[in-house]
Automatic annotation (TrEMBL):
Protein name (record): Protein involved in gliding motility GldH
Keywords: Signal
Entry superkingdom: Bacteria
Extent of the signal sequence: 1-21
Length: 165
């Protein structure tokens, strides 16, 4: 076997195995934002909840780059239950250190943030089986401004993740 193929197998195969063996994941999906996140752009994720007895952790996943110019992030979310009931939250997350260094995982200028949504303070249980819809939009404003930003730069992808606790 050629040396290049051996090196490839030694380096890439373990990475593929680690990524594919995510035993906690129940739902994990991303949506890309090619230019900017518009203030009226609602990102939506739909998934089926089958087990109404288990507990879960729910996360908002966010990938951002150096074009993100804020130290925090405000989001408005809603989780729609199969019966139509909707749980609405306004959330704030810290996105950088006081010196401007972006928080998150990653070696390049793209950082990945796994932000708690539900399950960190009290166990989250899907009380009904069926289709749930999670929606999210940003609520960012420039300092001293009343109106929201038309376009939030620097956010490249938004995701939603459900994990077994």
């Amino acid at each position: 076997m050629p040396k290049k193929i051996k090196v490839f197998l030694v380096l890439v195969l373990p990475l593929i195995l680690v990524v594919s063996c995510d035993s906690k994941s129940v739902f994990d999906e991303y949506q890309s934002l090619p230019n900017a996140w518009g203030k009226d752009q609602i990102i939506s994720f739909s998934f089926e909840a089958l087990d109404t007895t288990s507990t879960y952790n729910l996360f908002i996943n966010l990938r951002n780059n150096n074009n993100y110019k804020f130290s925090n992030l405000y989001l408005i979310t809603d989780l729609e239950y199969p019966n139509g009931k909707t749980l609405i939250d306004t959330l704030e997350y810290k996105m950088s250190e006081p010196d401007g260094t972006l928080l998150g995982e990653g070696f390049t200028d793209v950082k990945e943030n796994k932000l708690w949504y539900k399950g960190h303070k009290a166990p989250f249980i899907f009380k009904e089986s069926g289709k749930y819809t999670f929606r999210i939009k940003h609520a960012m404003r420039a300092y001293g401004e009343v109106e929201g930003l038309d376009d939030l730069d620097g956010v490249t992808e938004v995701g939603f993740r459900v994990e077994n606790k």
